[in-house]
Amino acid sequence: MQENKPFKSGFVSIVGRPNVGKSTLMNTILGEKIAITSDKAQTTRNNIRGIYTTEQEQVVFLDTPGIHKPHHRLGEFMVKNALSSLNDVDLVLFMVNVTQRKGPGDQFIIERLKHIHTPVFLVLNKIDQIHPNELPEIVEGYKKEMDFKEIIPVSAMYGNNLQTLLSDITKYLQPGPQYYAADQVTDHPEYFIVGELVREKILHLTQEEIPHSVAIQMESIERDETTDKLHVRASIIVERESQKGIVIGKRGTMIKEIGTRARKDIENLLGEAIFLELFVKVKKNWRDRPMRLEELGYREEDY
Description:
Elements: E1 8-16, H1 22-30, E2 48-53, E3 57-63, H2 73-84, E4 91-97, H3 104-113, E5 120-125, H4 135-143, E6 150-153, H5 162-172, E7 174-175, H6 190-205, H7 210-213, E8 215-223, E9 230-238, H8 241-248, H9 253-270, E10 274-282, H10 290-295
Parallel strand pairs: 1-3, 1-4, 4-5, 5-6, 9-10
Antiparallel strand pairs: 1-7, 2-3, 8-9
Helix pairs in contact: 6-9
């Protein structure tokens, strides 16, 4: 009789430049939306944990902020958060966008990766957007930089090659415990994810400096005894009065659209109808003020 294989588990960090598809990769693997996505750089600000469980394994993915040159304290927090994830994981996925040339940002990350003892995979994303003949040259360019344990081309958006990626990850995991319940896909509280869903809609609907200047402060999630609906209250934080006007929009059109789109995703997350109430508050230069950052959930102890 064949012996049962031991259950494997481990932590896997996904690192890379902004906007290479890290959050999309994790969401596609999990089959659920845990991390918000947009076409704006630096969408992810905290390390987001997603939990993938089968009968044979449990993989805890850490979707990290894109590593970039910071221009304020929030940016410093994000980069430290991402780099700190390299220290205490079992495997690192270095993700690149094959439609972009290898640049100084990739080189900076590679130099950091050379000094860790953790196995590193090179994950080449967006292969659906290039001709297959272009791939070997791109791979060779990265292979010259360091010795990757595995090199895996994928399309995070369409799921191409993700089963191969998961199989290779499992090979490098050690026998270990199941850290989370089989049906749990994240260990972040609902408060956090609800706030992120509101911020995602602002990223989709606004331009220029607004997406980077916005934070969400969750006020409350309480059941209204009269309507039996969940009443969700959240404040949209901006840095200047002019930004407040843009987020509210002419006759409240923008904030209404933000609320309409966010409510749909939040109801899908919570599995019931909600009443969403949004406010807009100005907290000047919050991205450069340590006390403000801590109030809004960007705490130094997180990294």
